[in-house]
Amino acid sequence: MNANAMARSGRLGAERAARGSVTEGAARAGLAARGAIYLLVGVLALQVAFGDTSRQADRGGALETLAGKPFGVVLLWALGVGLVGMAVWRLSEAAFGSAGRDGRKARKRLQAAARCVFYAGVAYSVLSFAVGPHSGGGSSDKQSRDVTAKAMGLPAGQWLVAAVAAGVVVAGVWIAVQAVRRKFHDDLKLGKMSPWSRRLVDITGVGGGVARGLVFIAAGAFAVRAAVDYRPDRAKGMDDTLRSFAHTPLGPWLLACVAAGLLLFGLFSIALARWRRV
């Protein structure tokens, strides 16, 4: 067997491993972990909407909530390991392509690589929190302000922040539009789903996707304003972004609706763990 044949055989073996049962299990564990986080954030946001302003409605608040439960540390470790699985799955998609007709296209692989980096960071923060509650959580609002301030200190930093923030707004619009169009059907095992399951996924996917898109749009808009005004303190993390919905003319009811949407997205992620093609 020559070197080219050996390399081809090794590449095929790596691709089969990436698409095997271990990676599939990692993907499904990661989707379930993501769903759990959104469920917790949704519950916390509902509590804020109904008057419990002491709650921190973001990932840090969700981790603190879990840590206070019986077997909380075990739950945190399970969540962190699940998110590591999500990062590994996205890495395999970046390297070998994802399921579906367009899975091997460069655009899809770049998206998978970006998601791998994002979920690796989230997994690190969760596992750090599991090791020591003061080492991995923290307010998303403070983190957003700190990152914005550092970015603005770079050459052309104001324009960089504005460009990234505008990209977040565009991503939010894209997330909401794709949800309304039910593009998630492309990734589902529709043939194995009952009519009731499809209705459940449609309701949670559309409602959850629109709510998630609104949060992205609002957070991006605040960051754009921070860049234009050169005021890093005006950037907002998830907690402050969610609270801002309560300061609109619709008041806490808009926040309650968005919080319900985040709950739906959490359920949708858990449904994906069952029916998504990997």
Radius of gyration: 20 Å
What can be said about the biggest beta sheet? Answer: none
Number of helices: 11
Distance between the termini: 32 Å
Question: What is the percentage of strand-forming residues?
Answer: under 5%
Offer a concise description of the structure.
With 278 residues, this protein is mainly alpha-helical. The chain is built from 11 helices and no strands.
Fold and architecture overview:
77% of the residues lie in helices and 0% in strands. Helix 2 crosses helix 3. The radius of gyration is 20 Å and the shape is globular. The chain has helices spanning 3-18, 21-49, 59-67, 72-96, 106-131, 133-136, 140-152, 157-180, 195-229, 238-245, 252-275. The protein is built from eleven helices and no strands. It is an all-alpha fold and 278 residues long. The model has no long low-confidence stretch (mean pLDDT 86). It starts with a helix and ends with a helix.
